[in-house]
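User: Structure with 1,3-dihydroxyacetonephosphate, tokens only please.
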Amino acid sequence: MSVQDLIATAQALVAPGKGILAADESHATIEKRFQKINLANSETARRDYREMLFAAPGINEYISGVILYDETLRQKAADGTPFVELFNKLGIIPGIKVDTGAKDLANCPGEKITEGLDGLRERFKEYHKLGARFAKWRAVINIADGIPSETCLIANAEALARYASLAQEQSIVPIVEPEVIMDGTHSIDRCEEVSSRALVHVFNKLREQRVRLEGMLLKPNMILSGAEAGVHADIRSVAERTIKTFLRTVPAAVPGIVFLSGGQSDELATQHLNAMNATFKNLPWQLSFSYGRALQAPALKAWAGKPENLKAGAAAFARRARLNSAARLGAYTAEMERT
Ligand code: 13P
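Assistant:
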């Protein structure tokens, strides 16, 4: 393993003004997205949709890396060019989702454990040969009465750390994603408490497994009120709570924090990121995005599965990427949404 390569890749992924596109939906998840536009989930449809995003004019100004699903890493664009080749030409780093999904955690009703460690070293070797230089593993942490348990937090932290150490061994930068889910009626205080507990366990386990913090990225949720809460914290409070939580739990050696959007609207996800970058200067880590839905939703809507809308879909994606790039620098304004 070349530690310098890992560090260089991690830093390139959070280069100023740039962030990550999460386009690693499993077949089941992309099917749900396609259902919204009444589109059948075929391999060609998945290819056409993703090619529209990847080939959108100018996106390499705003997008540093793309997280792919296994099928897409091996797929070719309509003209026969492998997607990996397209990314390499654009200077965009290909990444791969390697977990095999969140399953029920035995003895812990309502809680999940992410699977995928078996055979992971061999899979990393193959993914590296195919061109992937970073990876993602997502842990799912639900909030409800008496949930999450310490059992769930520790089991997921352990799996994240085992994954991250294997990724680094194979010269792949791990994105470590402990997602505290926003569904529920909980307050922002409760989100802060649960997220803090989760992050403490994650960094303890990363240390135990000797993961190089300089060669990884953290992909967390923002500290938000539950989606069905009676009162929703405003943008400034979300920014302050989120940064306060990370200052307490995320070591300064980590080069970047790349947020998931988690079901926030595309505009709100941009506003929150912008508020953090505009308000807090000289933080130890870059604050960036690794959005799935918040980057793709407008593109999916504009495209609607119709070939004649490919240009409009690509333009909608490039626009959202540009606005999030501005939010990376704290330079986003509401005015930009209107132009
Ligand atoms: P969302 O931004 O839609 O939450 O997706 C990001 C992601 O990759 C979740 O694992």
